[in-house]
Specification:
Elements: E1 11-12, H1 19-23, E2 26-29, E3 37-41, H2 55-71, E4 78-89, E5 98-108, E6 112-121, E7 124-137
Length: about 140
């Protein structure tokens, strides 16, 4: 487990155990009137043979950030499942980089949510992303 301390106001996300434990750790920060920011510190297990974060790490980060925005958009919480995910890679992330995903919810309908955003390092856009999610509305689900 990493001893990385994220910048304020980020706190470590407590996503359900499993696959996300291997891809992170991920961090969350609240924002007024917008989806939470999601952060990722690039560590040794994220790096590929070219000394850059593997493309799969970036696409997983995009999926986590976009789907979390949908999950957290309404109460009771929505249950998103990825239909499509598009990531456009602009430049590489490197070891020790702090990445932030800035997400917009473009539209939430009855059964589908549309999202977009950017992954940034110190204000520089590393990737753009869009996602479409099937949503299930939980009945009396988690608040």
């Amino acid at each position: 487990m990493s001893d990385f301390v994220p910048p304020d106001p980020y706190i470590r996300a407590r996503f359900s155990p499993g696959f996300l434990d291997h891809g992170g750790p991920y961090f969350l920060a609240p924002r007024e009137g917008a989806p939470q920011m999601v952060g990722l510190h690039i560590e040794a297990h994220h790096i590929n043979y070219r000394d850059a974060a593997h493309g799969g790490v970036i696409s997983t980060f995009a999926d986590v950030a976009l789907s979390h925005a949908v999950y957290d958009a309404q109460r009771p919480r929505l249950v998103p499942s990825t239909i499509t995910l598009q990531v456009n890679y602009l430049t590489a992330a490197r070891l020790d980089d702090w990445l932030e995903a800035d997400v917009r919810i473009d539209r939430i309908g009855g059964r589908t949510a549309y999202t977009s955003g950017e992954i940034r390092r110190a204000g520089e856009t590393l990737a753009t992303m869009t996602g479409v999610f099937a949503i299930r509305r939980s009945e009396g689900g988690e608040e």
